[in-house]
Each structure stands twice: as C-alpha cells, then as structure tokens.
Design brief:
The protein has 216 residues and is α/β, with parallel strands linked by helices. The chain has one domain: Alpha-Beta Barrel (TIM Barrel), CATH 3.20.20. It contains nine helices and eight strands. Strands 7-6-5-4-3-2-1-8 form an eight-stranded parallel β-sheet. It is globular. It starts with a helix and ends in an 8-residue tail after the last helix. The protein binds pyridoxal-5'-phosphate.
Length: 216
C-alpha cells in the first residue's frame, strides 16, 4: 500500500470541510491515485501537462483535475478540454490563452491568479498592482472565471514569516468581492494556511510519501 490511509483520514478530519483537499499526485504512479480515489478522493493536482493528460486518459472521469504547475501558453490546449481549475496563472497573456482555448471547447475555465508572497526570488507570481491590472482586463474575458488566488509561502522553518505571508494573501483575497477560492498550504504549512483563512490546500508528500525528484 503506497497510500498512507491513516494520514488521509486524519487529514480529512483536520480539514473538517473548512478547506478542499487537492491531492498533489505529480510523479506518482496511476495505482497510487486509484488507491486514493477508492478512498473517496476526487480532487487531484498535477504540475506537468503531459503527465496530467496521460493520467486523465486512464483514470475515472469524475475526477476534478487541478493544474498547479507553471503552465506554458503553448500547452494550454492540451488541458483545456477537461481541466477543473488552473491554480498558477501569473500573467494576462496566459489568461488570454486559456480564454481562447476554453472558448474552442465551449467552456468557462476557473482560474486562480498566483500572487508572489514569499521572500524568495524564485517563486512565480504577481504583485498587488499587477494583480489589479490583470483583474481589470479579465473582466472582458468570457471563457475564464478568476475565482480566487493561489500563493506559496517561503520554504522556511520561520513560522512567523510563513504566517505573515499567508495573512498578506488573505488580505488581498478579501479585497475582491467575487472570489471564492483561496488556495494556500502544502504538506509542511497547511495548518498555518488554514488558520490564516485558506479554503483549499494542495498536499502531496504527506499523502503519497516523498517524491523521487525535486519539484520545479
Ligand atoms: C508539489 C506542489 C505541492 C505539494 O507539495 P507537498 O510539499 O508535497 O505537499 C503543492 N503546490 C504546488 C504548487 C506544488 O508544486
């Protein structure tokens, strides 16, 4: 058994419907996803387009697939027919491309704008001013719905810093009336994220065990 069933049950109890659990299954084999599916999990998150498409083809059709990685514009077309929510949108150009491909599939695709909250330079995301600009432009796009924000805190043992970053994102989230999804929190920091107001957590290694190769 690759899935830690106790941890899954415990996690669901802890989240207590305050937050949707997205099981981050990148790099993990189909059997692991199926096992978690059989326990009732329906929301899965993937970072790589090809891997997502391959898994979607073989796994049950009632899965909600979340794209949580850095999506390249030229690959939007592969996920547009089925993706449930795209978490990491960090430019207007990407949002426009998603709008275009969603239109071709007669869909409205839900998206989260990724905000840069970490002190680290390497994390993708928009600043508050850019966010406002993208939100203005997004109002004219008919086939995407910006339903909230996503952010990643610093990879740090400084819990005060992590808490402060999540709280900042929550404040920004509160400024937009139509938002319903605040995606923040991973295996190492989800408790802090929920305290700060997250309603969607993306959890991988806690459920599936450590990954064999590092995350982009
Ligand atoms: C890999 C990944 C996660 C899950 O990370 P864990 O620490 O394994 O829970 C969450 N969010 C994003 C954007 C990721 O790339």
């Amino acid at each position: 058994m690759a899935i830690n069933k106790e941890k899954y049950t415990f996690l669901l109890a802890e989240l207590d419907s305050k937050a949707t659990l997205v099981a981050v299954s990148k790099t993990k084999p189909i059997e692991d996803l199926q096992e978690l599916y059989d326990l009732g999990q329906r929301d899965f998150g993937e970072n790589y387009v090809q891997e997502l498409v391959d898994k979607e083809t073989v796994l049950p059709k009632d899965i909600h697939w979340h794209f949580i990685g850095h999506l390249q514009s030229n690959k939007v077309k592969y996920v547009a027919p089925f993706v449930h929510l795209i978490h990491g949108v960090d430019s207007l150009n990407l949002l426009k491309e998603i709008n275009k491909e969603a239109g071709k599939n007669s869909r409205v695709i839900d998206c989260l704008l990724q905000v840069h909250i970490a002190t680290e330079e390497t994390k993708f995301g928009l600043g508050a001013t850019e966010l406002a600009e993208v939100m203005n432009a997004a109002a004219h796009l008919k086939n995407v719905r910006v339903s909230g924000l996503m952010g990643m805190a610093s990879f740090s043992s400084d819990l005060k810093l992590v808490r402060k970053e999540f709280q900042e994102l929550k404040l920004l989230y509160n400024q937009y009336a139509g938002f319903t999804i605040l995606s923040m929190g991973m295996s190492g920091d989800y408790s802090i994220a929920i305290e700060a107001g997250s309603n969607m957590v993306r959890i991988g290694s806690l459920l599936f065990g450590e990954r064999n190769y590092p995350v982009k």
